[in-house]
Specification:
mainly beta; BH3618-like; 7-stranded mixed barrel; 9 strands; 4% helix; 31% strand; cell projection
Length: 134
């Protein structure tokens, strides 16, 4: 897997956009705080559109995302080290209400800045999974 730092402040192109936001194609990953676990996926076409994201492996070391041949070809992935996976985060009033979408990760090829959001067919993962346990 790629290091998230390798793609900061670089345009990432999602040919199909994100789920529900297909018209917005270009984003950049920005640091929210030094050495923090949260990052900002900022849309370049509309500066008011941004998502908090997280490296899902900081929450679940056993998180599994299988990349099918079609996706590997579409993103032109040559080796595993080019792949970065992040999940969107929904913030709540209290940190105990923060959730992450483990069902629809964002797959980014850091070698060519192509990305795609996919939907996993795996009942172990939820759309809203608590980040901080109460």
């Amino acid at each position: 897997m790629a290091n998230i730092d390798s793609i900061f402040n670089t345009d990432i192109f999602f040919k199909d956009g994100l789920l529900g936001l297909e018209e917005y194609k270009t984003y950049a990953l920005e640091m929210i705080e030094e050495n923090g676990v949260f990052y900002l996926l900022q849309n370049k076409e509309d500066r008011e559109l941004a998502f908090v994201v997280i490296n899902p492996f900081t929450l679940k070391e056993d998180y599994e995302v299988k990349l099918d041949d079609k996706l590997v070809e579409e993103l032109d992935i040559k080796k595993e080290e080019e792949v970065l996976i992040v999940n969107t985060v929904t913030l709540g009033e209290k940190k105990e209400d923060f959730t992450s979408n483990f069902m629809a990760p964002l797959i980014i090829n850091v070698a060519n800045n192509k990305g795609k959001q996919i939907i996993l067919n795996d009942s172990r993962y939820k759309i809203k999974e608590k980040i901080f346990k109460e």
